[in-house]
Amino acid sequence: MATDPELAKRERLERPGARIAFVVSTFHRDLTSAMLESARRELSASAIDDADMPVAWVPGAFELPIVARRFARRSDIDAVICLGLVLKGETTHDVYVSQGASSGIQQVMLETDKPVLLGVLTCNTIEQARARALPVADGGEQDKGRELACAALQVLDALDTASRDTRRAVGFPSP
Question: What does the longest C-alpha to C-alpha distance in the chain come to?
Answer without folding.
Answer: 71
